[in-house]
């Protein structure tokens, strides 16, 4: 398939949380090469906030999947569901109805109570991404969100302490694991200073398992914006 005919994913570098979640899911599914990534400048320019991108997604967020028939899908979990159902191979969001429900349950918990808490901490304590992205400066609220995220991380560490490799207890990660992996990565990023692998034994082992996977190495081949993953950088 030529690159001109590939469906497009409008996304960003892997140190942005939702692009990271989707890229890791696509790598696990083995379909990254079947899509053309359009990397937007979300750091300084705030390209996703411009009118061109808002024509694709009025909520001005990434990622967005553009299909050959002109349909646009946004919201990371919705895109992941579409990709999982339309491509053969292992079902990343769960093989059975019960597994799918459990994956959604845990993904919601991890996204809302951990990753989104950390994302909020970053944005209300750090103004470096410019006025288009950093609309509110509220350090005390950021600390509240950080503490709430750490409480959830402690619960997840306990959940993993029974010897399971992945959140649902199977032999392979599911979509909720991509969200937890992203949360751990985000805690290590720049001014966050909230390294969960330093604080929690079983999350540390969990992160190490991810780092050994080929999907992780492919998803973070831009280095993830951190020194720890710089060795993966190929572009």
Automatic annotation (TrEMBL):
Classification via PROSITE patterns: GST_CTER, GST_NTER
InterPro entries (UniProt xref): Glutathione-S-Trfase_C-like, Glutathione-S-Trfase_C_sf, Glutathione_S-Trfase_N, Gtt2-like_N, Thioredoxin-like_sf
Coiled-coil blocks: none
Segments forming domain GST C-terminal: 96-235
Occurrences of domain GST N-terminal (ranges): 6-91
Family membership: Belongs to the GST superfamily.
Protein name: Glutathione transferase
